[in-house]
Amino acid sequence: MDWPLGLRPLPRFAAPFRDETISSYLARLAAANRLDPAALRALLACSDRKDAVVPLVCLAAVTGMPHAALAHAMPQICTTAELAGLHIANRPRARDRWSFAACRRCTAGRPVTRWALHDDVVCSRHRRWISQDQEQPDLTAQPEILTAHRRHRRLIRRHGRDTVMRAFRDARHICLGWRLDGIPDDGYDHRMEIFHGPGWRDRDDDETQTSDAAAYPQAVALTRLLASPYWRERILGKGRLWPEEFEAEVRRTVAPGYIWGIYPRTRWRRDRDDPLLEWRYGIHRLESEPLPPGHPWNLPETIQPGSGDHPCLDHAATAA
Q1: Where in 69-224 does DSSP place strands (E)?
Q2: Number of domains the chain is built from
């Protein structure tokens, strides 16, 4: 691989974190060398565009890192040819809304943003909730969330990453719909009280991160049903719309107060059905009207070497 003319290693080296976004790494590298991040990116990309792709060879030139080591740390910036022969597995693709602030304790307080898989929501080592936001709620007093995370990982090992990813995506949407419709979730309320105290309902500030964490155990519980071939057959199969066996399992493991077929119309969604029922309609609709093969909804969440796509051309250049 040719060395880019005019580029040489910067005086101060900053090692990239695993799956760190290019914008995050350039910001840290520029700060270590007292440079403007935008100017550094423009130099490496030969473009003033904020979303300009930074070639691996140019980044290697200014860091002094071997190409293979840099590619393994940040495969999201690699071309298909650069990924060839690179032994990577279960590494996240660059996707919208999936660049998370890394655990601050793991990075010794350094601001690092990295690409994440859908289950990378808990730092098990430091018991912190991880998301797009810089706020990282402490989970030490939240054993249900930590247990749900272990169950989430077991589901992935059992059913496959992409199957569980799509099931979890749908489960989160369904559980949020239930909560907005006023269906009680005592577990959610209890976990929010642990985060904020008994008066959490009276708070005016945004509690997005703790709300997501508090809702996580129920979403994982529903994911188990949506990802399981056994339960999917009872949800989507022919015959009776909602077998009693499935309804009983939802009550036992997901929502104790759930009643199929008798869905209360509320001030939030007077013209809508149960989100779980709507999900069923949507899945059947996709069977007759499938999305195009390359639709983002169908893409895997991990990098697929040799697939022909260029990961960094999707979103890696524009993420923080």
Answers
A1: 99-101, 113-115, 122-123, 128-129
A2: 2
Burial of 179 (0-12, 13-18, 19+ CB in 10 A): buried
The answer to whether residue 188 sits within a structural domain is yes
Residue 266's SS3 state is: coil
Q: How far apart are CA 43 and CA 58, in angstroms?
A: 9
Please indicate, yes or no, if residue 51 is contained in any of the structural domains: yes
Place of tokens 């910036």: 77
> Tokens 């209360």 appear where?
264
Same domain, yes or no: 207 and 163: yes
Helices (H), the chain: 22-32, 37-45, 56-63, 67-73, 80-83, 143-159, 161-180, 186-196, 208-227, 229-236, 244-253, 275-288
- pTM for this prediction: 0.87
pLDDT higher at 96 or 157: 157
Closest C-alpha to 276, from 251, 296, 305: 251
SS3 assignment, position 166: helix
Q: Is residue 74 part of a domain?
A: yes
**97 vs 71, residue with greater confidence:** 71
pLDDT tens profile 113-153: 999 999 999 999 999 999 888 889 999 999 999 999 999 99
Dihedral over Cα of 133, 139, 144, 146: its sign:
positive
What was the pLDDT predicted at 317? Answer: 38
The amino acid at 44:
L
Domain presence at residue 126: no
Q: Which domain holds residue 289?
A: 138-298
- CA nearest 231: which of 218, 219, 217, 249? 249
